[in-house]
Amino acid sequence: MKQKWIKKGDKVLVISGNDRGKAGEVIAKKDSRILVQGINVRKRHMKARQQGQKSEIVSLEKPIHISNVALCDGEGKKIKLNVKIGKDGSKELVYLDNGKEVSYRTLKKPVKA
């Protein structure tokens, strides 16, 4: 299932894989893979390219598939988004928190004629 609501800057929770249970912020998104801060960190041996530069081991975040994450709120609790259409035609993503509707993000602003 493609999770089309995930964008750069969103907070996500990893639901499968080695980093299951960890939360982080989306750094980048390309097609069906996302880069999450502090998740799927791998070590890479970088060779010296110029004279005087030292070889080093660098930690890099690698992309993970979008189906392995779920959107979460500030505390790291999974949320399920719904689309709410206003009277003026605006679209908004909302989720339920203790029975109350909480606005997540505005999708489409109304067109003024």
TrEMBL record:
Keyword rRNA-binding assigned: yes
Record-linked SUPFAM superfamilies: Translation proteins SH3-like domain (SSF50104)
Keywords annotated in UniProt: Ribonucleoprotein, Ribosomal protein, RNA-binding, rRNA-binding
Gene Ontology cellular component annotations, sorted alphabetically: ribosome
Domain Large ribosomal subunit protein uL24 C-terminal span(s) in chain numbering: 39-92
Pfam families found in the cross-reference section: ribosomal_L24 (PF17136)
Family as reported in the entry's similarity comment: Belongs to the universal ribosomal protein uL24 family.
Protein role: One of the proteins that surrounds the polypeptide exit tunnel on the outside of the subunit. One of two assembly initiator proteins, it binds directly to the 5'-end of the 23S rRNA, where it nucleates assembly of the 50S subunit.
Protein's recorded name: Large ribosomal subunit protein uL24
UniProt source species: Candidatus Neptunichlamydia vexilliferae
Gene that encodes the chain: rplX
